[in-house]
Structure formats: C-alpha cells, structure tokens
Amino acid sequence: MMEGAFFVSKGVIIDWINELLDLQLTKIEQCATGAVYCQIMDAIYPQTFSLGKIKWGAKFDYEFVENYKVLQNAFDKNGIKKHIDVDKLVKAKY
Questions:
Q1: Computed over its alpha carbons, how large is the radius of gyration of the chain?
Q2: Average pLDDT of every residue of the chain
Q3: Helix axes 35-44, 10-21, angle to 10 degrees
Q4: Which of 36, 48, 59, 65 could form a disulfide with 31 if both were Cys (CB 3.0 to 4.6 A apart)?
Q5: 50 three-state secondary structure
Q6: Mind listing the pLDDT tens digit for each residue in 44-58?
Q7: Whether the Cβ atoms of residue 38 and residue 54 lie closer than 8 Å to each other
C-alpha cells in the first residue's frame, strides 16, 4: 500500500521546492530541464557533483537530457537505486 507522501499535490511540491531553493516556480513543468532536480540533489547530498555541469539555461530536450545524466550519476554515487525516466520528465509529463 502506498503512503500519503505519494499523493501530495503539485502545489505542495512547488511550495516545498520554492522554499528549499529560494525559487519562484509557478508550475511543476518548469522543472522539466532537470536543473531544479539537480539543485535538490545538491541540497541533500552536497559536493556530489559540480553545479557547473548543469545547463541552467537549457531550452532543448537534448540539453535537458544532459542534466538528467548528471542527476542519474549523482543517484548512483549516493547509492540511490532509482532509474530516472528521462523521456517522461523532459516532456513534463507528470
């Protein structure tokens, strides 16, 4: 059975991200570039990767994919056994 954390609204998630990273996101789809997820990972596991590897101004899918590769590598380095569904995330399909 799934716990309540799996059923949190997008608004609650956006509020948490904005507070954690001092951002002003208005839609969860703004996370599709992967840069925000990388920032969250860096907040939880500092020094896992260089933030200089992140493509902050990414506008195209192929740039988003590079950010997700950095994120997946950070997962692997920290023993997180979760595969990132990049195809779904770069299209902002949640």
A1: 13
A2: 91
A3: 60
A4: 36
A5: coil
A6: 999 999 999 999 999
A7: yes
